[in-house]
Amino acid sequence: MNLQLTDEQIMMRRMVKKFAEEEVKPAVAQMEAEDRFPAELIRKMGVLGLMGVPIPEEHGGSGMDYTSYIIAIHELSKVSATLGVILSVHTSVGTNPILTFGNDTQKRYYLPRLASGEFLGAFALTEPGAGSDAASLRTKAKKDGDDYILNGSKMFITNGGEADTYITFARTGDEQGAKGVSAFIVEKDTPGLTAGKPERKMGLHGSSTVELNFDQCRVPASQMLGAEGDGFKVAMANLNAGRIGIAAQALGIAEASLEHATAYTQEREQFGKPIAAHQGVSFKLADMATEVEAARLLVYQAAALIESGSPGNKEVSMAKLHASRTATQAAIEAVQLYGGYGYTEDYPVERFFRDAKVTEIYEGTSEIQHKVIAKSLME
Ligand code: CAA
Q1: Mean pLDDT of the chain
Q2: Is the pTM here over 0.90, yes or no?
C-alpha cells in the first residue's frame, strides 16, 4: 500500500497547518479559560472548505479523498484537539450518514449546508444507559400519521446544543437489540427537542458535550434516514469510518506532545547539560517517536483502506486503539519531561494530557476496539 502523500494532500496539510498556526493557536488560551464554543473558527473553516473535505463537489463539498480529510483533523489537533473533534464528529458521523444512506431529497437539502459549514452536524446515539452496548438504546419513535413521535434522552452528544442537525437513533419496532432501531435527521429547532447544560469536562474545553431530551418530539417520517429498522447499520457503518477521525485527533495530540518534549528537553539544562543529553531522557523520546510513527502508519493505512472502499473494521479499530493509547502515553511522558513546569498551565503539555484521555473513550472505548479486532480475527 502506497502511503506517500499526493501533491493535493501535501497542499491540504500546508493549508491546515497555516490556518492552525495563524488562526487557531492565538485562540486556544481563551477557549481553555472560558470553555467557549469556537463558532468563529468554525465559520472560517467553512470558508476554507474544511467542513466538507470528503463530500463530493456535486453535493457542495470539497470533493477530496478520505486521506485529505484525515490530514485536516491530524494537523488541526496538533494545535487544538477541540477543533479536531468538532470537525470529526461533524463530518464522519454528522454528515457522512446522509451521504451514504440519505435519499435524493435529503442529500439535496442537507449536504450542501453541512459541507459548507452553514449547518453543523451531530450524532445522537449514546444514552444514559446505552454506551458501549449501543444496541440497548431505549429512545422510542412511535408512528403517528405522517410523523414519528420521539421520546427519550441522549447523553454525551458532541456539538450538542450548537449543531443544526442530529443524526438520531430511536427504536421504531418492538424487537430488542440492534433490530428495530431506525435513524432520523432531527433539526435543532424541532419542538420537543431540548439540550441540557454543557458537561464540565476534564479536557477539550470549547467543545460542547450535552444531554439531549426528546419529549413528544414530532419528526416527519420523511426525515427517516435509510429504511425502517436499518438504524443500527447506519450507526455502525459510519462509526467505523468515523473512528479514523478520532484516531487522527489522537495522532495530532501524540505528535504535539513529542514535538514539544523534544524541543523543551534540548533547552532545559540540569547537571550542566541539556536534559535531552541524558540517556534516560533521550531514550524516552526515542520510544515516544517510535509509537507515534506506528500510530501514523496505522491511521493513514486505515484512511487509505476506507478510500479504496474496504470496510476495514479491523484496521480502523487497530488505528484508534493504538493512536489513542499513544496519545495518552506521549502526553503523560511530555508532562514528566517538563517536570514541575509541565504540571502548570503555562505550558501546553498539561492540556495535551487532559485532551488525550477521552480519545480512549469516545467513538468506541479501547475495550470495544479490542472486541472488534478480536471478532475479525475469528472470522
Ligand atoms: N457496518 C455495518 N453493519 C454493521 C457493522 C458495521 N461496521 N457492525 C455491525 N453491523 C451490523 C451487524 O451486521 C448486525 O446486523 P445483522 O444482525 O443484520 O447481521 C448488527 O449491526 C448488530 O451487530 P452486532 O451483533 O455485532 O452488534 P453488537 O450489539 O454486538 O455491538 C459493537 C457491536 C461493536 C460492540 C457496537 O455496539 C459498538 O460499536 N459499540 C460502541 C458504541 C460506540 O462506539 N459509541 C460511540 C458513540 S458516538 C460518539 O462517541 C461520538 C462523539 O460524540 C465523539
Answers
A1: 97
A2: yes
ipTM of predicted complex = 0.94
- Kindly provide the b/e burial profile for residues 103-142, where b requires at least 16 CB atoms within 10 angstroms of the residue's own CB: eeebbeebbbbbbbbebbbbbbbbbeebbeebbebebebe
The strand ranges marked E within 145-299 are 147-158, 165-171, 181-187, 193-195, 209-220, 224-225, 269-270, 273-274
As given in the structure block, the three cell numbers for residue 233 are: 447499520
Q: How many CB atoms lie within 10 A of CB 324?
A: 31
pLDDT of residue 135: 96
Ligand 1 binding site (Cβ under 6 Å of any ligand atom)? 89, 93, 123, 125-126, 132, 134-135, 158, 178, 232-233, 236-237, 239-240, 313, 362-364, 368, 371-372
- Site to substitute for ligand 1 among 100, 166, 233, 306, most atoms within 8 A of C-beta: 233
Q: Which amino acid is at 294?
A: A
pLDDT digits (tens, 9 = 90+) for 20-57: 999 999 999 999 999 999 999 999 999 999 999 999 99
Helices (H) and strands (E) in the chain, counts: 12, 10
Q: In angstroms, what is the span from residue 358 Cα to ligand 1's centroid?
A: 19
Distance CA 323, CA 279 (A): 26
CA 167 to chain centre: 15
Residue 239 alpha carbon to ligand 1 centre in Å: 8
Residue pLDDT, tens place only, 140-191: 999 999 999 999 999 999 999 999 999 999 999 888 899 999 999 999 999 9
Distance 312 CA to ligand 1 centre (A): 14
Protein residue whose Cα sits closest to atom 42 of ligand 1: 132
Inter-residue contact 175 to 230 (CB < 8 Å): no
> Does residue 2 carry a pLDDT above 90?
no
